[in-house]
Amino acid sequence: MDFSNQHKHRSQPNRCTVCDAPIVINPLHRDQPRICGNVQCQTLFKQQHSMSPALYKQHFARQQQLILQKRHVEVEKQKHIERLKQTEHAENERIAAALKAYVAGFAHQEIRVTQLPSGLAETAPPEPDRIDAYCEHLQDVISQAEAAESFESLLDGQHSVLHESLINQDQRLEDNPALAQGVQQMCGLCKGGCCSAGGNHGYLQPITMRRLMEHQGMSAESLLAYYREKIPQRSVVGACINQTREGCSVPREFRSDVCNFYLCEEVEQYLDSVEYSESGNTCNLVVQREHTHWNRFEAVEKNPVKLIAVQNEEGELVPLAHGEWLGSGGD
To answer: How many domains does the chain have?
Structure first.
């Protein structure tokens, strides 16, 4: 598909000369270049000053085609994501309606749907190359931690916000044991759908190591030995090296702030809905789907339902059998 020819026909004064994205024109500077904020578009525009007009014309045409192709792919990807979201939402609503209509005890309850991903399940002994890469990462972050003046010196803007957010979240869950139990139940059911991106680094950073040096009194040598010892005999294939079927092989206090703070969007919404709900007659319906948190939108048609459960009065998740009731309202 020739994206550049399409662009030529539809280009307008208030659109980018390169990618045709809408731009805002300053009325006081109407002679300014029609270039959007995209770095690639701006770079291509500036390159005209380092090339002859004839060479730049050819270069512009080639690069414009690549930029437009990439933009087209991104637009189609977002459309696909929205279609999958709508499909999942509609299916969740049908499951909730079927629960109210065909399962005893739910007819007069308000149904809150929480959708969960699934952790990867296959395990294998971590390969030597993977262990070497992990240990190299550990040595790097430990060396940076050792060279830092203090834990506070590593609390830049991003880390400072994350650390403060973790403290607030821990306090929030400590103040509301029911919320904490709900999170524990759902994360336990998911089994690491968010951990699949941990790779050979486990999100461990210099600030993690410096915290342990100061708060646990550990040396660089003892930290390296500790984390090496915690490498599991079998870890989940394609996920964090420390992820096992039983959970993380590293205790919580030795994990990064990223790991300890992160909750998927669905669990965050569950927390907010429970904490701020004024209804005392609400049932939490959990719909778990097969993909992980990170590959959820790689599904071609839809992300299949793996398990359906309801949360009882004690906060426990009770799986529901896929019986005739589901066929009446779901797929």
So the answer is: 3
Residue 304 DSSP symbol = -
The structure's pTM equals: 0.76
CA angle 184, 120, 274 (to 5 degrees): 25
Same domain membership, residue 283 and residue 255: no
Residue 119, classified by CB atoms within 10 Å of its CB into exposed (0-12), middle (13-18) or buried (19+), is buried
Collapsing DSSP to helix, strand or coil, 40 comes out as helix
Phi, psi (deg, nearest 5) at residue 112? -105, 125
Strand pairing class (282-289; 247-248): unpaired
What are 279-289's pLDDT values in tens digits? 668 889 999 99
Same domain, 64 and 91: no
For 281, the 3-state DSSP assignment is coil
Q: How many CB atoms lie within 10 A of CB 1?
A: 9
Q: How do residues 26-59 score in pLDDT, each as one tens digit?
A: 777 777 888 999 999 999 999 999 999 999 999 9
CA angle, 190 then 266 then 240, to 5°: 45
8 A C-beta contact, residue 331 and residue 94: yes
**Cβ proximity of 317 and 185 under 8 Å:** yes
